[in-house]
Amino acid sequence: MGVQFTLRDRDMKPWTTLLVRTIAAMLAAIFISAAYSARIYFTDQPAGADGYVMSVAPDGTDQRTVITVSNAPDLRGIAFHRASRRIYFLDTGAARRIYSVAPEGSDLREVTSISAGFSADLEIDEINDRLYWAETGDGLIRRANLDGSGLETAVTIGAGTFTAPYFMYVDPVGGHIYWGVTSSGSTPSNFRRATLAGVIDPAFLIASPTRSRDIAIDPTSATAYWCDRQTGSLLRRAVSGGTNQTVIAGMNAPHGIALDVEAGKVYWADSGKRDSGPSNTSARRVARCNFDGTEYENVSTPLAISEPWDMTLDTSSPTFADWRTRFFSTTTADSGPVDDADGDGAKNLQEYAMGTHPRRSASVPRIALQGTAVKYVRRIGSDLASRVEVSTNLPAFHYNGDGSGLVWTTEVLVTPVSAELESVVTAAGPALAGASNVFFRVRVSMP
C-alpha cells in the first residue's frame, strides 16, 4: 500500500520533476526488537517504604520497576543521559548518594556522595556531559562530571526557606541555570537564574502563586513551564517576561516536570501529598498533556502509597510505534501510518520519516531541489528503509543495488539535524550522465 504525489520547487527547471512516494508496508504499527525505546523514568519515594526507579511508555503501557532501593531511601531527582543511555538518580535518605543505572536495572554505580543536608533535584547538561544537583539544605547548586569527578559548586545561592534552591533546570544552549526557591505553606514563591559560570542574574524573576516546584524551558519559543504545588497547576510564561498563563489546573501536588518539545507535550510527576487537593486527577501518578493543556492523560499506574517526585524523558523513537506514543494521545483518531492526522497531505509515516509534526498542518515534509540534486530529511537509527530512486522514462525507476550494477545516485552531503534525523543531498549518479530528463523519488518503507 502506498501514496504518491508530486512536489515542485519554485526554482525547479522546467524539465525536472520531483516525484516522491511513501510506502507503508503495513497498516498496523510495527514493533521490532530494539535495545531502546521512548520511555518515561521517574522516582517513587513513598514514606517509610522502599524507593523505586520506575519506567513506563509515553502512552502508559509497559510499566516496569527499574530498580528497588532499600535501607531508608528518599529518592528525589532523576535525569536521563541519552549518549550513555544511563539513568541518574539522587537518594537523599540514609545513603546520601547519586547513582547511575542502566534502563533495565543492571550495572548500578555510585557516582558521588551528597551533602548531609536535604538535596532535591538532579539535572544533566547533555552538551557538556555534566551532572547538576541542588543541595537545598546548604543553599548550593553543585556539579560534577558524569563519573563524579570534577566536583565543584556551580552557584552559591544561600540557605533558608525563602532563598535556597529546590527544583532546577540547566539550559546549556542559553547558558543559564534556573531554580525555584523552597518557600512554605501557600505563600508565593519564585524562580531565579544564574549563568553557567555561577553569576546570579539580579534582574530575572518568575513569580509563582505558591510553592514552586520543577521548571523546564522550551528553547524553540523561549517559554518557561513550571509546577505550582499548592494550586495544583502547571503554568507558563515567556522567559523574557509577561503574564503567567495556566496550562492545566486541578491537579493535586505536581512536582517534577519535563518537556517533549518536538511532540509539544508536557509531562509531570504528581506526588499526591496535598491533603486538600483533588485525588481523582493526577495524584500519585505521572501525567501529560499538550502544551495548550488539551489531551490530559494519566500515564503511570500507582500503588496506594506511591509518591512520584521527579521524572525524565527518553524521546528515542526507533520505531513508528514509539513515535506515535509521543505525538498522539491514546484516544486520538487517525494515528496510523497511512492516516493524515493534520490534513496537510502527508501521511503519518511520512512525517515520522522526515521529522515533522503529524498534528500541525504547517509542519509539512519538505523535499526540494538543490541545484540538480534532491534534498530531504531522513530518520536514522530506526526500523525504516529509505532510498532515492531515479528515472529518465517514467514509470521505470532505478536505484543503487537494484541488480543492474550501475551507480544511479550519489549522496553528496549528509548533515546531522538531531540525534535521529539528518539532512541528505543526493545527486544523479554516473549512470545518468548526459540525461536531459531526470525524475527523483524517495521511497520509505517499514519492514
How is the secondary structure organized here?
Elements: E1 2-7, E2 17-23, E3 39-44, E4 51-56, E5 64-69, E6 75-81, E7 86-91, E8 97-101, E9 109-113, E10 122-125, E11 130-135, E12 140-145, E13 152-156, E14 165-171, E15 176-181, E16 189-195, E17 206-208, E18 212-218, E19 223-228, E20 233-238, E21 245-248, E22 254-260, E23 265-270, E24 285-290, E25 297-298, E26 308-314, H1 320-327, H2 348-354, E27 368-370, E28 373-379, E29 385-393, E30 396-398, E31 409-416, E32 421-428, E33 439-445
Parallel strand pairs: 2-33
Antiparallel strand pairs: 1-2, 3-4, 3-26, 4-5, 6-7, 7-8, 8-9, 10-11, 11-12, 12-13, 14-15, 15-16, 16-17, 18-19, 19-20, 20-21, 22-23, 23-24, 24-25, 27-28, 28-32, 29-30, 29-33, 31-32
Mean pLDDT: 91
Radius of gyration: 24 Å
How much of the sequence is in beta strands?
35-45%
Distance between the termini: 13 Å
* Sheet with the most strands: spatial strand order: 1-2-33-29-30
Low-pLDDT residue spans: 1-34
Question: What's the CATH architecture name of the largest domain?
Answer: 6 Propeller
Shape: elongated
Output the CATH topology of the largest domain.
Neuraminidase
Number of strands: 33
How many structural domains does the protein architecture include?
2
CATH top level of the largest domain is Mainly Beta
Q: Number of helix segments? A: 2
Structural class: mainly beta
CATH superfamily of the largest domain: TolB, C-terminal domain
